[in-house]
Amino acid sequence: xxxxxxxxxxxxxxxxxxxxxxxxxxxxxxxxxxxxxxxxxxxxxxxxxxxxxxxxxxxxxxxxxxxxxxxxxxxxxxxxxxxxxxxxxxxxxxxxxxxxxxxxxxxxxxxxxxxxxxxxxxxxxxxxxxxxxxxxxxxxxxxxxxxxxxxxxxxxxxxxxxxxxxxxxxxxxxxxxxxxxxxxxxxxxxxxxxxxxxxxxxxxxxxxxxxxxxxxxxxxxxxxxxxxxxxxxxxxxxxxxxxxxxxxxxxxxxxxxxxxxxxxxxxxxxxxxxxxxxxxxxxxxxxxxxxxxxxxxxxxxxxxxxxxxxxxxxxxxxxxxxxxxxxxxxxxxxxxxxxxxxxxxxxxxxxxxxxxxxxxxxxxxxxxxxxxxxxxxxxxxxxxxxxxxxxxxxxxxxxxxxxxxxxxxxxxxxxxxxxxxxxxxxxxxxxxxxxxxxxxxxxxxxxxxxxxxxxxxxxxx
Length: 461
Description:
Blueprint: H1 5-53, H2 59-69, E1 73-78, E2 81-86, E3 94-99, H3 105-116, E4 123-128, E5 137-143, H4 145-197, H5 213-267, H6 273-299, E6 310-313, H7 314-328, E7 334-339, E8 345-348, H8 350-370, E9 375-383, E10 387-394, H9 401-405, H10 422-433, E11 437-444, E12 447-455
Helix pairs in contact: 1-2, 1-3, 1-4, 5-6, 6-10, 7-8, 8-10
Keywords: ATP-binding, Coiled coil, Kinase, Membrane, Nucleotide-binding, Phosphoprotein, Transferase, Transmembrane, Transmembrane helix, Two-component regulatory system
InterPro entries: HATPase_C_sf (IPR036890), HATPase_dom (IPR003594), His_kinase_dom (IPR005467), HisK_dim/P_dom (IPR003661), HisK_dim/P_sf (IPR036097), Sig_transdc_His_kin-like_C (IPR004358)
Coiled coil: 215-242
């Protein structure tokens, strides 16, 4: 039960109420001691007044008066004269003297606690002011045993009463907390469980009902979060369906465009001046459309397969990339340089690493070709104790601000007109699959540098 909110609240309430009762108990016992001693002084004064009224009291009556007052001796000071009014044998020497006329609360509490925890009986002297100013002072000697017994009995009654009050108060607060806090919280938890079981079902969205401000704010926040999440899930589902449809369309469209591309190859052989002038533009448009379809299909795959990691010669992979892109960029004045040390070996999937380098290199030379200025695309590599570092640099015009802001975001990071922005997104995903990272080192009028970091250990960089 203590692991529940209401159970802990019940226990804490009981403890706090008992602590409050303890703070009340100490001054209460001190007050009881003062009243007890004052009562004995008053009884002694009444007994002494009876003796003063009749100076011929017998010894038996005097002893009875002292027993009723529960004291041994009574000294009364009247008119500056100190007079032993009543007396009897004292069983032992007086151990302490207490003046009740001008004593601070701290001293009274200290003396009460000292008496409460002192076992055995002692004889003490108590001094006080007579009732109704019937003298200057009254002084009695008395035994502490009955005083301590009375204090213990009073304290026990106080403790029992405190326990009853604590239990009753805790039960009342327990019921109040159950009604005001715990049940509304349990209702919120039930809504959360129902929503987690079927987040697309709008009936699982909570309806704020709590009257406590903080709980109502929590319910309203949960309602807002559930509503937004439901909308996001529906939008995600629609986007997934749309993506599947686009992939199918792109697949068929790619086949159609491939056929159209074959026809354009023949059109380029025409000697008609108009056809000769328009054919390159048509070929370029169809080529870009085919490239976009292929990129969309590649990105639209549900998940890239996990890389098959082996130690491979990086220079061989770079040679394949350079050979492929040299052929693709034969009409542009682009130079490809392979500066990878022949002996350098990296742990990677050769096919996926080829795709990464191909996407980055293709973006680089296409950016240079768009300026119609000769340029260089260089691929270099180095290693240290922790990682392999592969750099792809170019002498192109640099990336525009929009491309930098969404560099690895699909369909938004395109750096050239007509680009899909998928090349770098696919490359970054493949590098992450190797446990590495693809980052932009620098870009500007002097060129652009990308860095591929592949870790040598089992963890990340």
